[in-house]
Amino acid sequence: MNALVKRIERSIALVDEDRRVLEELCGSSRTILRDRDIVREGDRPDHVHVLLDGWAARYKGLIDGSRQITAFLIPGDICDMEATVLQHMDHSVTALTEVTVASMPRERLIEVARTRPVLAQALWFVTMVDAAVARSWIVNIGRRDAQARIAHLACELHARMDVVGLATNGAIDLPVTQNELGDALGLTPVHINRSLKRLRDEGLMELRNRTLAILDGGRLAHSAGFDPGYLHR
Amino acid sequence: MNALVKRIERSIALVDEDRRVLEELCGSSRTILRDRDIVREGDRPDHVHVLLDGWAARYKGLIDGSRQITAFLIPGDICDMEATVLQHMDHSVTALTEVTVASMPRERLIEVARTRPVLAQALWFVTMVDAAVARSWIVNIGRRDAQARIAHLACELHARMDVVGLATNGAIDLPVTQNELGDALGLTPVHINRSLKRLRDEGLMELRNRTLAILDGGRLAHSAGFDPGYLHR
DNA sequence: CGTTCCCTTGACACCGATCAACTCTGGTGG
DNA sequence: CCACCAGAGTTGATCGGTGTCAAGGGAACG
Question: What pLDDT is attached to residue A131?
């Protein structure tokens, strides 16, 4: 089943007709290769993309060639809601793995939002959660040391994957390199590596073979100061 | 004139009736003292607050007693749009100065959004810009050193104040302590102070008597890697 | 005229960056 | 099947930006 629908129905009751309209909106999908951009800064896409499978990342590039990832996107996330109301994208979204995305025609989406209040509310909902996650990243990067930052991100991703049914008893697929983690957390890959080792040595979590295992969720969340309220499940 | 209306009309054309409805929504206003919270984490406010005058800040408190500011709010900004669709606030908003806020009844706001598509679009617009600013803060805190961070924030605030007509040739009122700047930028007040001194010594900007003077906008923006695109003016 | 914030400055400690080398793994082509 | 190679992970040594601690100065306010 469509990950977006699944995610929404965790929080908002849809009638059959809503669900049908939503799934029809996501009708046409295509696959994009790893390291390809799904949308790029400056674009004004006429379709809004929904991630159906795989991992993607929002990022902004800096003049010195580095980049900062501002969000990890998992199935059920919307890549470029911005495109509906703003003139152009102010950041890019890239595929971290091979992904499949659905394309919702922009005009049709706007019309649906106008004619089906519950779906409009659902779109508001996912947008606001997205913003809440961004704010929590500011807190994470601004106030926590490397180890807690990684731990907090692990908790967030596990919780979000759980919502769309992609978490199996304390483990998720996390096909993200240490380099990319560094770009997301404002740290160097070297330091990511050292901090992962400490988390592993302390029996809190383990990232190996592109899968993240939560070894002690309670202590991990505590050490990260993780409070899932902002995810609004 | 209402700062929210002014801000929206910079980007979206309103007919008289839209403007009238919007100003009526902002009809009842009150003033709140400095250091008082406007909304608090966990609240489910039945009114949505618009900042009409003064400065406020979104923040999240951490267990160790510190806090991270995730946004500065200026006239025309909405404090708690979250309240319209989510169960509860995931962060607090506090008054940095004495402020005056308008209270829009939640239900009435939702009804207006449903019946007046242009106003709905306007609400989307301010929400998306808010999110874009949050993402740019992630980049700022994640990738720039102290001096560039401060410079970038200065550029952002000047640009935003300009939109609502509160910037006068390179200077804005900025009634924010160095302590609060530290809470916003993930730095200690001591280091904020040193970095402000360097910015002053290099003739880039000056913060004194609660007013920010941009001395050399070009070099300041360059040193900060500031690209105003994300503000979508 | 004292008190309270806020700003300022110095000395020192430490977290994370940088630079560099090596290992491991999976994929590719001879 | 094996040799090679590129990307990713790992680890050590050293450097630098920022935090911490501490003390003092200045302005607003009762």
Answer: 98
